[in-house]
Specification:
about 500 residues; alpha/beta; 4 domains; Nucleotidyltransferase, domain 5
């Protein structure tokens, strides 16, 4: 079981879609109507599945750790056809159990920054900061670490909210897949009215589900509820069919169903009958002592997630609203402290001066008798000062010599640093061009890089193709795509009779 290492005295969880807040102290938890800024309070929230895009992306295993984000970002914009004018917030986690000889795979989460700004505007206005904003599907992680469910096997979680519904798959504690379903409570309400042919208030519809579940008192209502949930589980079955095929899933061990309004009676039995999967309601003993209104399941999961050891949490935080640094580290704090120190110093000097002046007046007669002794001491001290001044000049000369040596060493280290920084950039550019060569089915035989004293930087690629059109098409594509950064040239294309292929040398000069 993972133990809590959260150093804060309280944890505040936020549902930005329902505008609800819960605060916990130890095992005590209760609703908070108007949360306020507190520096000793840890704040956690989540993003609904419908508010982010998720995809599994594979990149070469040869890409260095520090270049993984850039490689994923480029591939995400390309493969998902994202708007290049929008600077999306992108986070990623490793995809476990996906094997390939040449690639490594990641689950990538993409969020529009305007979505974050709109959904969390109210919370940030009241609290000033949010420590952690995590995608909803990752909040199921504490169920395994707190041993609330078996940590082995493949589990499906379905959760219904007012404006969203989601299906999430975990395999042996690891996130596998998530999908936003088209049947949120509001969508269910609209479809139920359409089937029934008469208006029923939304709150009445929720009350009916809370109190009676699928066994509504009114037979007419029950008939259309069954039809509604039949359509819902047909949609869920289609999603599961796709997930099984895409991720080669052979067996689902358990299905858990929960909702914002709590358990819906009969829903687990309906799911088990319709899908043929062992199913149960989303009811767990979270270990909280409730002080007033009890939290819904998402709030409980957020509270547990915040208490996890950081090593057990996914590194997937979308929060841009970080807490302010300690007072002594802020610029304003430094200024105030400096001003206070200056004020104390300014007051200290005249106080000491006045005290000494008063003492000197009291001892004036005694000092007059000691004048000659003090005069002799003055002469001796002047001699010492002259010696010290001479030593100071000598030390200044030594300092200047050492400083010049330091500047030379600094220049050497700066040159070494530039080489270390520029080398990964060359590797990144080489990877960038290799993707273009692969696009036209062209082999890279060798590559060279030159940099003249005039700072002209150039790549020379020796290419092999099955026909000369591949080479000319590549040159046209590179010229059209990268002309702003590089000048491309290809002097000639040679046909090698013995090997039945075409050779050419492509030069790319950085502008």
């Amino acid at each position: 079981m993972s133990k809590s290492t959260n150093p804060f005295s309280t944890i505040l969880s936020i549902n930005p879609y329902q505008k609800t807040y819960y605060v916990s102290t130890g095992t005590q938890i209760g609703a908070e109507k108007k949360p306020i800024y507190q520096k000793n309070q840890y704040v956690i929230s989540f993003i609904n599945t419908r508010n982010f895009i998720t995809a599994m992306i594979g990149i070469s295993k040869n890409i260095a750790e520090e270049d993984i984000y850039d490689a994923l970002e480029n591939k995400v914009y390309d493969e998902l056809a994202l708007d290049l004018a929008v600077e999306y917030k992108i986070k990623y986690i490793p995809a476990h159990g996906i094997t390939d000889g040449n690639d490594q795979f990641f689950h990538v989460f993409i969020v529009d920054p305007l979505t974050l700004e709109e959904e969390f505007k109210e919370a940030v206005g009241a609290l000033k900061y949010i420590d952690l904003i995590v995608p909803l599907p990752l909040l199921y992680t504490p169920l395994y670490h707190q041993q609330l469910i078996d940590d082995s096997g493949l589990h499906v979680f379905i959760y219904f909210q007012e404006n969203d519904a989601s299906l999430t798959i975990f395999d042996h504690q690891n996130f596998v897949y998530t999908k936003s379903l088209k049947y949120s409570f509001k969508q269910m309400h609209e479809r139920f009215i359409e089937l029934l042919g008469e208006q029923i208030p939304y709150n009445q519809f929720l009350t009916m589900l809370q109190e009676y579940g699928l066994g509504a008192v009114d037979s007419e209502h029950q008939k259309y509820l069954i039809k509604l949930f039949g359509e819902l589980f047909l949609h869920i079955n289609d999603v599961l069919t796709y997930a099984k095929r895409a991720f080669e899933i052979t067996q689902i061990d358990h299905l858990y169903i929960g909702s914002l309004i709590g358990s819906i009676a009969g829903l687990d039995e309906y799911a088990q009958t319709y899908l043929g999967l062992r199913s149960s309601l989303f009811e767990f003993e979270y270990g909280f002592s409730v002080s007033n209104t009890g939290p819904d399941q998402i709030h409980a999961l957020m509270q547990l997630y915040a208490k996890l050891d950081p090593s057990a949490q996914y590194d997937c935080n979308f929060s841009e609203y970080h807490r302010p640094p300690p007072f002594v580290k802020r610029e304003s704090g430094k200024l105030i402290m400096l001003s206070a120190a200056s004020l104390v110093g300014a007051m200290l000097y005249p106080t000491i001066y006045w005290t000494m002046d008063y003492a000197e007046k009291l001892h004036l007669n005694l000092l007059n008798t000691q004048y000659r002794e003090l005069h002799n001491q003055k002469i001796e001290r002047e001699a010492i000062i002259n010696i010290k001044l001479s030593e100071q000049k000598r030390y200044e000369t030594l300092y200047n010599e050492e400083h010049q040596a330091f500047l030379k060493t600094k220049q050497t280290l700066t040159s070494i640093h530039e080489v270390k920084v520029n080398y990964p950039m060359k590797a990144k550019l080489l990877s960038y061009f290799t993707n273009d060569f692969n696009r036209f089915d062209i082999l890279l035989q060798s590559v060279s890089y030159t940099e003249t004293e005039g700072k002209t930087k150039a790549f020379s690629f020796h290419l092999i193709a099955k026909n000369d059109k591949q080479l000319t098409d590549l040159l046209k594509y590179l010229t059209a795509t990268h002309a702003q950064k590089y000048m491309f040239s290809m002097d000639k294309i040679s046909f090698i009779e013995e090997e039945k292929h075409y050779n050419s040398e492509l030069k790319a000069v950085l502008r």
